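Please describe the entry underneath.
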Amino acid sequence: MNKMLEIENVSLQFGGVKALDNVSFHINEGEIFSLIGPNGAGKTSMLNCISGLYSPSNGTIRFKGQEILTIKPYKRTTLGIARAFQNIALFAHMSVLDNLKLGRHTLMKSGLLKGGLYWGAAEKEEVEHRQAVEEVIDFLQLQEIRHTPVDKLPYGLQKRVEVGRALALEPELILLDEPMAGMNSSEKEEMSRFILDMHELMNITVVLIEHDLGVVMNLSDNIAVLDFGKQIGFGTPTEIQNNPDVIKAYIGEEVS
């Protein structure tokens, strides 16, 4: 398999605290990859390094063979990397449709003047972006709430819209930071199905942070485990379940 994302010896330090300590793993093209560990293990910090919100103290991150640490966050989205946040980062008083349209702003090429005049290339681009957004709405089954302000939606649907905003970028790699947090069992099953479908039908490589180990073991091709910023495990779900360091530090018992 081709390596889509390569993390090599990445460390991240805040003052005297090491959020990440010499972490290395890779993510293959076309897989669902999970990053797990206790609270404070460094999982979100790693996603922040990949998406560009944080700059590692040392190490390298390569996307499809290209070093990306010197590339600004908004430019990384144009390479094919999208991010859905743990804490919902939507525009609360705007509709679902408008939030998804804004998710594509880094892909817009027409300038302000052309966009305001709405002719020629700008008009064609607007049609193309709207079509892409409509596909996300259909995929995530958001048709009935497309014009609803997101702050009027229940939490589970807000999380779905947050994922949709990342999908609207048409990414090759999507980073999902606890997309099922706060959901009930039926909502988790629904989100799991969406993740499998974006992987299988859209051919998107998925990086997932999730605390529900049952979900992780069922969905993942490979898993990396962090504990206090250190990597203590990397491998298939079966290998992780049988890794004594992981069992001792995190799982506590085998996950059935």
In short: The chain has two domains: 1-80+171-256, 94-169. The first strand starts at residue 3 and ends at 14.
